[in-house]
Design a protein that fits this description.
Helix 1 packs antiparallel against helix 2, helix 2 packs antiparallel against helix 3 and helix 5 packs antiparallel against helix 6. By secondary structure, the protein is an all-alpha fold. It is built from seven helices and no strands.
C-alpha cells in the first residue's frame, strides 16, 4: 500500500476508536448464552463506570499498538502488533456495546486518551523493538491486574460485563506473552512506576467522565 493508503487506514482506525462504531471480529462474550440481568440503579451506574474505564483502556491500547506498529523495524513484530491490535478492537467494540446496554456513554475525554497514548507509543517504538515490546509486556501485565480487580468489583449479577472482562483478561495475557517471546525486555523500575501512576489517573478520571 502507498503511504496515503496507510494514512487513510490509520485515520479510520483513530476515528472509529475515538468516536465509536468499532467492528468486532468475534461475538461479544456472553451475548448469546447469558441473560441481561436486571441491575438496580446503583449497580448499573457502578458497572457502567468500570466498563467505561475498560473502554478507555482499549482506546489507549489501539493508539499504542498503531503507533508502535508504524515505527517497528521488524516486519514480524509489525504483524504481531497488528494481530494484537485487531483483538483489542474486539475489546473496544464489546465494551462499547455493553455501555450502550447499561444506558451509559464512553469517556468524553477519548480524543485526549488516544492522542496521549499515540505519542507514548511512538516514543516507545522509536527507542527500539526490544524496548517497544518490553513496554507491551509491562502494559499488558498492568492491564491484567486491572481487569482482575474489576472482576472482583463488578456486581455478581452482571454476568455479561464479567464475561467480557474475563475474555479480555485472557487475550491480554496472550498479548503480553507474545511480546515477551518476541524479545521484549523488562523496563526500568522508574518507568514501571510512572506507568502505574498514569494508569491510576486515567482510571480514576474515566470512571466518572
Amino acid at each position: 500500500m502507498s503511504p496515503i493508503d496507510h494514512l487513510i487506514i490509520e485515520f479510520d482506525t483513530a476515528l472509529r476508536t475515538i468516536v465509536g462504531g468499532a467492528n468486532a471480529g468475534r461475538p461479544t462474550p456472553g451475548s448469546s448464552t447469558t441473560p441481561n440481568q436486571s441491575l438496580d440503579a446503583a449497580e448499573r451506574k457502578h458497572a457502567a463506570g468500570l466498563m467505561r474505564v475498560n473502554h478507555v483502556g482499549e482506546v489507549c491500547a489501539q493508539a499504542l499498538y498503531q503507533s508502535q506498529k508504524i515505527v517497528a523495524r521488524n516486519p514480524q513484530i509489525q504483524e504481531m502488533l497488528n494481530h494484537s491490535a485487531q483483538e483489542e478492537m474486539d475489546h473496544l467494540a464489546w465494551c462499547e456495546t455493553r455501555l450502550q446496554e447499561l444506558g451509559s456513554h464512553t469517556s468524553y475525554l477519548n480524543p485526549l486518551w488516544y492522542a496521549g497514548s499515540f505519542a507514548i507509543g511512538l516514543a516507545a517504538g522509536l527507542a527500539g523493538d526490544k524496548w517497544s515490546l518490553g513496554f507491551v509486556v509491562e502494559t499488558e501485565k498492568q492491564v491484567e491486574n486491572h481487569l482482575e480487580s474489576h472482576l472482583e468489583k463488578l456486581p455478581l449479577e452482571d454476568h455479561r460485563s464479567r464475561a467480557i472482562v474475563e475474555q479480555m483478561r485472557i487475550d491480554e495475557i496472550e498479548h503480553g506473552r507474545a511480546a515477551l517471546d518476541a524479545g521484549g525486555v523488562a523496563l526500568p523500575d522508574p518507568i514501571q512506576k510512572l506507568m502505574k501512576i498514569v494508569s491510576k489517573v486515567m482510571t480514576t478520571t474515566a470512571y466518572k467522565i
